[in-house]
Every structure is written in structure tokens, then in C-alpha cells.
Design brief:
The structure is a homotetramer of 216-residue chains.
Chain A: H1 35-52, H2 59-66, H3 70-76, H4 80-90, H5 103-119, H6 123-132, H7 138-165, H8 175-192, H9 201-210
Chain C binds a DNA duplex (21 and 21 nucleotides) through helix 3.
Chain lengths: 216, 216, 216, 216
DNA sequence: TATGAATGAGTGTTCATTCAT
DNA sequence: CATGAATGAACACTCATTCAT
């Protein structure tokens, strides 16, 4: 039974659960594990981690939220850290927008996608917790990078590379720095506690694409 | 007795401790409160918070690290949250570089200053913990913004405004987006797990100042 | 959540434990809660409260005395106050003597019953602690009144009312004052530190009855 | 400086402080101890003990209430137990009413005096705490008996003996039981949680006296 | 003499984890 | 397979008492 709505959106997909610490015995003897239970646990863990942070998230709360008992969780995951990483590994963000060939519009679309993730309740807290736990549970940060950060950066980089190859950009443009500036602007703005204007992605893209200096 | 080296750098200055919940009585009666103990507690708290995060940081560990007993801490700080905020408030980053009038050099200097803060051991974990604790202990994030984030943003903005006023920048430049892109690039790069090239600030400043697009 | 239990039960040593803050799930799934442990905890709590008083009674000591761990206690009782009230609620004094119709003998029998309670080791200390805690933990006193004081008063009053109805006592006899004088004599004697003579109840009953009986 | 009104009434007298654990050095060298401070400490201790009970009363709170520092207290009293007993020893209740020769009126007057003590805020809590602490700090109960209980019992007994000697009472009346019934009625009524009628002492005296008086 | 600072030993409570059914 | 019961280790915080000024 679901106790609360899951953190993930409806168009979220769950990836294959091949990261479990305690795989079910091969052969199909006995009652098979419920896939719905598997998913409920991972959803609950993800939600708790986002809302309360890894350190504060409690197995008890996850069990209650997923509507299962604690041993049911431990049967699937070796411990708190493994549960958290499994939840993160299973988490799939919304599909990134497909590039259209219009560089500016594509960049804005990707930043809009990022914004939805960051503005989701506790989205920044989730980023915070993986950073805060780096020393204690480094897998969280690596997984976060692999699952959430890297795809977005790749998408941005793809758009920029295409633009460069088509001659839209300067040959010597540092695309790495550009990608960092584009996505980082969100983090910086949030950390500064400043409100996001309605059409926030546009000015950022404009700055990065066009620069601040007066044209010759 | 100091158990560990302090987190703060040698050129760090400690700000006035006016956030204490139980201020020492004015006048000089009785045994004076040891200033070395005051500092040791705040240093230890800051270090524990950076290394383990606010949720995991324990008063016991802070007491041990500072070489004092727990009641000595509670004499000065009303609770864990107050101790953490006091440590944050007392933490003074290195002085920001003074602007020279050379826009590009000034921006690079400020970003270099930021980089030293972020690359300090557990620097990003500190940012992570204030973000992760936003729901539970919002004072941490607001204090962090006030003490660390805002001054840097103001410095960056000052340099950019001067440049705009002197005609160096386009009149319509969105300085807010530019500041976010400049400092955010660090966060994004760290979160991506990518190494920082030797002269990292330069490409970022170049992108923001000059833009990616080919000039007309 | 229930703070007090209903007024059920007449003869069983331990009343039904429906005052628990975290009741066991109905149905028989999972490991059943040990009834021996339930009882051991309540007994230990009652003993500690009588011996050391509510304020001094520690969960640690109760756990040790009951031979269980502290979380085992917290599984059953929401906190120290709830544990103490549960112990008090579960405590059942010896059954009161049944009235025989002989007024004087019945009163003496009830006072003898009271005396056994008061002379039990720490019996008066138990009364003391519920009085001392009135400001801090008023449930203790109300439960004590409900479970221990009220039944005895009712029994005494019943005997006196029967005697009055049968014409043995004066019509205008103040039964309330008489009941108070009868049971209060014990408290006063104890508080005075005076030894209880062998047949103590008899003189008290004689003093009080003499005042109530119809004059010749 | 007095922080709060003292528990004791204005017509309360303080007895000689010859129970101090640490008497001042003989000879009058150095600054003499302030008698006002002595009294403030004892008043504060008495009030705290009545309000919170011996176990919960804290030296810190007493110091604050008395407007002194903790070492000032420890200079005069060897520890918490000694402070509490000193406070109790120094406590003098209102003077008992002088007997007039009218037995019934004298008894009522003494019970009225008792009632004022019992109904004083925390009066019963004070009785409770000395009972609760009997195992831990038996001096409290002995002192309470000596200072508060015994004088009242003696007064009651005096009135009754005079009445017996003057032929008002039966020769064989058990005065001990009668005294216990008279004062105990208060304790019992309070413990039962029943309200005290306006003229409460009268019915109690009537019940007890009726039993003692020679029949017509 | 008096102060404020400092402390060792606890307090009630919670949590990740394992056990018994 | 799944449950509820049980636990060792920790947690933030407090108190009676002593120290240094």
C-alpha cells in the first residue's frame, strides 16, 4: 500500500533493478518478491532522502511510507547506504528534451528541464545531501553524477558542439566552461536565495551565448 | 588543548560572538570565560559540520575535538542549532580581493578566491549540508547566504557594475545572470566531478564576458 | 492516545494493558509480544517508582531491573510519564474485603486492608511521589485516586451508608468527614512517625463510630 | 536581590541557623556573611522544594531565585540534601492558635491552621516530597515531623487532654487515635481529590468529638 | 567573600539492525 | 516471504558539584 505520493513524477521510469545487494535466489521457488513492493521501497527511500536528507532519513519512516516492514527492506538491501544508492540508481529523471537544431532554443529547453528538477520540492536538498555525504557515502555523489548530472551535461554539450561544428560558435570557445556556467547559474541563484524570474533560462543563455562586452 | 588542526586558514579572522544564547555577564566579576575555549569550540563545530554534516555532527565529538566538556559548550550555546549557526557566523572567509579597475582580472581574482573556498577540504560538503538542512534548520542556509554567498556576489556585481558604468559592457547586460553563471560554474563543475583545470577561472570569465558566438 | 485506562477489572492481578501508546497490531502476524516482558516492565517501573520516586526513577534502571533493553520499553510505552501511569494503572491492590453486615467489623477489615497497603515497603513513598509530582505529572495523582483511593473510599462509604440506612447511625452523620477521618488516620499516624499499635484500626473505628451512633 | 516572593508567610519566623554544615570561621575576620543572603537562600530552597519537589529542585534555580551564585550556596551548605534540610529546619510555620478552653472551638481553630498550611500552593506537594524521599534523604521526613507535624499534634493533644482532665471526655478515649483522625482527615480528603467544603473543620471535629464525649 | 566557568555522570529518547514467529 | 519484537550504541541535553579569579 502506498502511504504517500511518490517523489518521482508520473513520466518517470524506473530502471532495471540489477543493483540489489541481496538478489533473490535463482530458481522461482517460494513466493516471488513483489515488484510493486520493490518499487514502493525505492520510491519511499528517494522521497525520504530528498525531504530529510540521507543522515536523517530513517528506515522506519521508509518502511511506513512504503507500507512494508523493516525486514522486508533489509531482505532487499544490505543496509541504509545500499538502500539509498539503490533508490538513487533506480531514479530516472524526466526525459531530456530532444534537440531541434535551434541552438538558443535547445539550450533554453534543457535549462528549463533542469529548473523543473531543481524547483521540485527538496530538489536542491537532494543535491545538498549527496554533497554533504561525500565523505561518508561517496557512492551517492557518484551515482548522482552518473544518473542526473552527466546526461544533462552531455545534452548541453551536444547542442553546443553541433553549433560549433555548424560554424555558429567561435572555434576557440571553451565548451566545458560554457556548460558549467549554464547549469551552475541555477545552483548559484538558488544558493543566493534569489527568486527565479519567470523566464530565467533566457538571460543565462543570452549571457553565455553573447557575452557581456559591447560588440565591436 | 587542540586535538586537530582548525579548519579555518591562518588569515581567517573571527567575528564578534554576539550570537550567544547565554552571554557572559558584563563587568569582570568571577572567572573570565576563556577566549581560547570559545574559539576552540567554534572551530571544532565548524570542522565537524564540514566533515560530517550538520545532522551527523555530535556535541560529544565537538567537545572532544575542542578539548572541553559538553556543559562548557552549553554554557555558550543554547543548543546544537545555535552552536552550528554561531560557528557559521564566526567563520570568516579570507578577505575578498580588492578591485583594481581591470574588469577581467578582478573577476578572475574573485573566482580564484571562491575556488580556494570550494576546494578547501569539505568546502563543498559544507555547502551541501546547509542545502540539505534547509527544511530542518533553515538558519544555516540563511546565515550561509548572508555571510559567505552574499559578500562574494556583491563583489562580483560591483566589478560588473563599474564596468558597465564605464561603458565597457553592453547597457542591456543582465548582471544578475552573469554573476550566477560566474560563481555557479564552480558548483556545476564540482557536481559534475570534473577536475578543475589549472587556470579554471579564466575560461569561465572569458565565456561570460565575451560570449560563445562568433562576432559579427 | 489514551492516557488513562478504563475502570474495569475487579480481581485480576494485572489489568488489561490497553493504555499502550503503541498498541501491538491486531492479528497474529510476526513475533508476538512477550507477556512476561510486559509484566516485568510494569513491575519494575512500579518498584522503581515506589523506591526512588517518579522523578528519580530512570528508564535505564527499569530496563535493567526488568531484564530488557530500553527500546523494548519504548516499544510499549511512549515515554516516562506514560510508563509510570501504565504501571500505576496495571497495579491492582489486593481485593477489598467483602462487607459482612457487621458495621464495626467491616470498617476494621477495610482499614486493615489499607494498612497492609501503606505498610508495604515504600507504600507511603508511593503516595508521596504522586503528591509531589502533582504539578509536574498530574496524571499520576489522578490515576492513583481513581485506582487506589476511590475504591477504598467507596467501600467505606458503602458500609457506612448501609449502617445509616439500617438505623444504626444518626441520620445527620457526615459520612464524608467520617470516611476522611478513618483513612486519614493512617496517613497522619505515618506522617507523625508514630508506631502503629497492634490493633490500630480498632481505636480509630471506635472513635469515629462513637460519634456516628445514635445516642442512648 | 529577591527574584520572587518567598513561600513563607509574612508572619513566619526563621529559626536560628545552627544547622549549617559549614559554619563561618570563628573570629570576625574578612567580610561577614550577609544574613539577608542566608535567608534568601533558605527561602528560595524551600519554595523550590515545595514547587518542584526535592528531586527536581535544582541548585541553579535556587541560586537564581535567591539572587546569588551557586558557590555562595555551597559555602553555606555542604550539598543539596543539607541545603534542603536546612531550609526545612529554618522554616517556621505560622504560630499555632492559643487554646481558649472551649474544646470544640480550639480543635476547629487548630484544624483551620492546618488547612491553611495544606492549602497553601504546593503544601501537599511538600508533604509528598518528604514522604517520597524517605529512602533517599530521611532527614527531610524527620525534620518535617519535628518542625511541622509534632507541634500541631502536641497542640491538638493538649486541647484533648485538658478536656479529658476537666471531665468533658470519656476516661477511656484513645486520644492518639483521635488526633490522627483529626489531622488525617485533611490528608485523606486531599488525596481523594475531593473539594473542601467551606466549613470543613467543623464536621470532622463533630465526628470525632461526638465519639469522645461522655454519653448523656 | 563572592563570582562565573568548568565538569563527570547521568537523563530520556531514537535508530540501524537482527531475531523469532 | 513477511511480520512485529528486540537490541547496542548513540544522541542532545542537564545537574550537582568544584575550580579559578
Amino acid at each position: 500500500m502506498r502511504l504517500t505520493a511518490p517523489l518521482v513524477d508520473s513520466d518517470t521510469e524506473r530502471s532495471r533493478k540489477d543493483t540489489e545487494a541481496r538478489p533473490p535466489a535463482s530458481g522461482a521457488r517460494g513466493r516471488p518478491r513483489s515488484e510493486a513492493t520493490d518499487a514502493a521501497i525505492l520510491d519511499a527511500a528517494m522521497a525520504e532522502m530528498a525531504e530529510r536528507g540521507y543522515a536523517r532519513m530513517s528506515i522506519d519512516a521508509i518502511a511506513a511510507r512504503a507500507g512494508v516492514s523493516k525486514p522486508t527492506i533489509y531482505l532487499r538491501h544490505a543496509g541504509k547506504a545500499e538502500l539509498a544508492t539503490a533508490a538513487l540508481a533506480a531514479f530516472q529523471q524526466r526525459a531530456l528534451p530532444r534537440p531541434t537544431g535551434d541552438t538558443r532554443a535547445d539550450l533554453v529547453a534543457i535549462l528549463r528541464h533542469l529548473r523543473r528538477g531543481v524547483e521540485r520540492p527538496f530538489g536542491m536538498a537532494m543535491i545538498g545531501t549527496v554533497l554533504a555525504e561525500e565523505a561518508h557515502t561517496p557512492e551517492l555523489l557518484s551515482l548522482f553524477r552518473e544518473r542526473l548530472v552527466a546526461p544533462r551535461r552531455a545534452a548541453l554539450r551536444g547542442v553546443l558542439e553541433a553549433a560549433r561544428d555548424s560554424g555558429e560558435l567561435r572555434e576557440d570557445a571553451d565548451l566545458d566552461a560554457a556548460v558549467a556556467a549554464l547549469v551552475g547559474a541555477y545552483y548559484a541563484q538558488y544558493l543566493a536565495g534569489r527568486p527565479f524570474p519567470r523566464a530565467w533560462p533566457t538571460p543565462v543563455v543570452d549571457v553565455v551565448l553573447g557575452g557581456l562586452c559591447r560588440r565591436a
